[in-house]
Every structure is written in structure tokens, then in C-alpha cells.
Amino acid sequence: MGQIRVKICGLRTAEDVAAVAASGAAYAGFNFFPKSPRYVTPGQARELALLSPPGLVKVALVVDADESTLDALVEAVPLDMLQLHGHETPERVDEVRVRYGLPVMKVLGVADEGDLAALLEYSLVSDQLLIDAKPPAGAVLPGGNGLTFDWRLLVGRKWLKPWMLAGGLKAPNVAEAVRLTGALQVDVASGVESAPGVKDHRMIAEFVAAAG
Predict the structure, then answer these.
(1) Arithmetic mean of pLDDT over the chain
(2) Which residues of the chain have pLDDT under 70?
(3) Are 61 and 9 in contact (CB under 8 A)?
(4) In terms of DSSP bridges, do strands 57-62 and 81-84 run parallel, antiparallel, or are they unpaired?
(5) Which label site among 53, 118, 127, 190 has the fewest CB atoms less than 10 Å from its CB?
(6) Could you give phi then psi for residue 14, rounded to 5 degrees?
(7) Catalytic residues, which ones?
(8) For the chain, which domains are there?
(9) d(CA 36, CA 141)
(10) Could you report the per-residue pLDDT of 169-210, keeping only the tens digit for each?
């Protein structure tokens, strides 16, 4: 594993966790958005999290989750980070950080230069940013749609917090994405799947190796 930290999101089985651990990825993501093909219950995620080796950062992906949902999730699952993938305001991000005492990663969709201003605003209240392709109008899923955006928008830009690149990344294009954007962290879900929600363990290993 090189300097690029990789997050594999949407793990659903013990074999997925083992493959991610073996690959050298830094983060394991569990998806708690019920409409996603990668959805797991808090009970399922607890079992998977307990199988994760020390050092693998366990991340919960949630979408506009309320207090009762987050309370139950944090109580059930030994998590290291919360990933907010909905329409959470900067104020809401700050509330979640304070309430749960966990690092918070805010996901922001980018389609054009006009979307970049929000990254600075959210970097004031989050611990990390995840820069994803903005979902198309009417999309059911806020991410994991396998879409890329114009990576040149990020060239030479800096934010106050660490950030992660997502959106349509796969083994064949991740090295180019890293080269263009200067990303030190990358996130993948659909790009290492043989079908929606079904991780391909060979593709996980190839992706991490290609990221560098």
C-alpha cells in the first residue's frame, strides 16, 4: 500500500471485510441508507465491524439521519467515523460532531465550479470532506451511482481539512484521477462490484493496488 488511503464503501459480508483488510485499504464503509443495494442493518454492521482488524477505520454512511437513528446506530456499532451523505447543513454537521464525539466526513456533490464554494464552508465544521459526483436529477441514491465529474475542477485547490475523492472511480482510472486532482484519499463502491451491492474481491485488490 502506497501513500493513497482507500475507502471501500458498502460492505455487506464477512468476506467483504476480509477482502478489504487483505487489500490494504484504510477505511471500511457501511451503508445505512435503506434505498441502497448496499444497505445493512445496525445489527449486521455490528457483526461486520467486530470482524474488522485493528486499524481499519469503520465508517457509517447515513443520509439525513435524525437523532434517534444515529443514537441507535452509534450504540449498536463500534464506529470510528460518521459520513453524512444527505442535505445536512453546516450547523447540522457541527451538531452531529458535538453530540457523538466521532469524526464527521461530509459528502458534497460537484458538477461544476459553482459547487466548490460549499467545500470551503463545510470544511469549517467537518473533520473530512468527501468530494463526489453530483447525482443526476431524480436519482434515488445520493452517491454510488458510478458517475465521474470533471476532475480538472480540483486541480491546485486546497481545503482546510483532509478530503477524499469519489465518483465513478475504478481500477483503470483511479491513478489518473489521483494524478489530476492530487487526492491523497479515494473512495469506491460500485467500481469494485460485479452487481449492485455485490463486492468483487479481486476488483477490490486491483483497485487498491492501482490507487498506489
Answers:
(1) 93
(2) 1-2, 136-146
(3) yes
(4) parallel
(5) 53
(6) -60, -35
(7) 9, 132
(8) 5-211 (3.20.20.70)
(9) 7
(10) 999 999 999 999 999 999 999 999 999 999 999 999 999 999
